[in-house]
Write a sequence for this structure.
């Protein structure tokens, strides 16, 4: 069956430009949450404290580290189902070690861990900034109190220079990079001293180095995201996997009219790139407990909770592989995926994706109703298939789930490429489902 390309929707390039702005403001999972929270609060959403008594129906959100859940249950009754769009906030990158100060040959360098399935070569020869969060000690009587502070150094302060070809004549036959010995960025000249990095971060954050207890800090490409191509066909940006989905889900939630048929909800998880097993990952009880407490907060019983779940839908949105023109043989020949031909429904018989015939149909019908094209992806049968938060969320929550996403190239590169029409298409399809 050929993929239908009879869309009635027109491309929304302004939306793709807004996506670029969202990504540029959000270099770490914590910044994704902060950027989204800013938009939610401007739209009247209020925070819910997991340690406090649950509020009644309304427009609420829960933010925890790199995870965020937001929903509108203003007019819902106790058995109203949920329509949940799930995504992940993390992307593969380089993370600063706890004692990072190191160097050799009169260069000051920073020790890094590799987070997730990084395409190591893509980090070479880029201007790198630093972002994330630090845990900070209080002063005086509050010196044992720890608070969390976001840090953003959004200018080039480090660089990973590639070895000159004269010193590696076989570089173009397959570049081999050792994670321990080849990936430490240079960030200064001279002899490294313990505390250099902490002093730098303290100055940037406006705090005392002695008050920094620990950090979750990472590098990012400082080049701004852009629409590229003669007619701006493409989005060139870091972290499209999966901030593209976060942005679109957020914008769809903000645009819902609050239909009474289901409760619109977005659920962004951290740590997808490293297996989702954490307090803020898709394997955590975070989403399930919020759904349960939302039902209870509106006066629902345990039975009402199970009834609501039984008719809920999770749309797991994560980018899909478009067919790469230079490596078309790596893709399933009868399911080629192209940019700007609409969202991709992902199917895998071995449950690497949670889609089944029924949930695929629900998403396909939503695309048809919204007048946007859609495509169907399966992996080559002789290649291993990636996965998403879809199967994990389905198993944790027990709700019907479909795996979908916008197509892209260069997944897990420091700089990825997607189509500029697809974000608007996916927004319209999600909006059809969210109501
Ligand atoms: Zn992803």
């Amino acid at each position: 069956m050929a993929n239908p390309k009879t869309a009635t929707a027109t491309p929304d390039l302004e939306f793709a430009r807004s996506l670029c702005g969202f990504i540029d403001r959000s270099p770490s999972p914590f910044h994704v949450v902060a950027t989204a929270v800013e938009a939610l609060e401007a739209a009247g959403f209020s925070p819910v404290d997991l340690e406090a008594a649950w509020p009644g129906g309304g427009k609420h959100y829960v933010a925890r580290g790199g995870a965020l859940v937001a929903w509108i249950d203003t007019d819902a009754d106790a058995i109203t189902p949920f329509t949940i769009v799930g995504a992940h906030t993390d992307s593969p990158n380089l993370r600063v070690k706890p004692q990072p100060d190191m160097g050799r040959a009169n260069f000051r360098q920073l020790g890094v861990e590799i987070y997730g399935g990084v395409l190591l070569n893509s980090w070479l020869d880029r201007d790198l900034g630093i972002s994330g969060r630090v845990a900070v000690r209080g002063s005086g009587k509050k010196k044992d109190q720890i608070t969390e502070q976001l840090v953003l150094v959004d200018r080039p302060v480090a660089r990973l220079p590639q070895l000159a070809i004269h010193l590696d004549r076989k570089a173009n036959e397959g570049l081999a990079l050792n994670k321990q010995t080849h990936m430490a960025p240079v960030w200064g000249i001279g002899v490294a001293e313990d505390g250099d990095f902490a002093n730098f971060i303290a100055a940037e954050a406006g705090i005392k180095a002695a008050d920094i207890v620990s950090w979750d800090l990472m590098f990012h490409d400082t080049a701004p995201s852009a629409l590229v191509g003669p007619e701006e066909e493409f989005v060139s940006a870091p972290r499209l996997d999966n901030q593209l989905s976060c942005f679109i889900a957020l914008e769809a939630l903000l645009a819902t009219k609050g239909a009474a048929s289901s409760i619109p909800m977005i659920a962004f998880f951290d740590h997808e790139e490293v297996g989702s097993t954490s307090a803020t990952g898709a394997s955590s009880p975070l989403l399930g407990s919020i759904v349960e407490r939302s039902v209870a907060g509106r006066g629902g019983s345990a039975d009402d909770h199970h009834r609501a779940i039984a008719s809920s839908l999770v749309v797991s949105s994560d980018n899909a592989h478009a067919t790469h023109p230079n490596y078309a043989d790596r893709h399933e020949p009868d399911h080629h995926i192209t940019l700007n031909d609409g969202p991709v429904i992902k199917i895998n018989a071995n449950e690497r994706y949670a889609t089944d015939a029924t949930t695929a149909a629900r998403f396909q019908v939503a695309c048809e109703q919204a007048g946007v094209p859609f495509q169907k992806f399966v992996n080559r049968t002789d290649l291993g298939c990636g996965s998403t938060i879809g199967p994990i969320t389905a198993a944790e929550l027990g709700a019907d789930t479909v795996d979908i996403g916008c197509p892209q190239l260069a997944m897990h590169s420091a700089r990825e490429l997607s189509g500029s029409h697809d974000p608007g298409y996916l927004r319209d399809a999600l909006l059809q489902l969210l109501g």
In short: Residues 88, 241-242, 272, 318-319 surround zinc ion (CB under 6 Å).
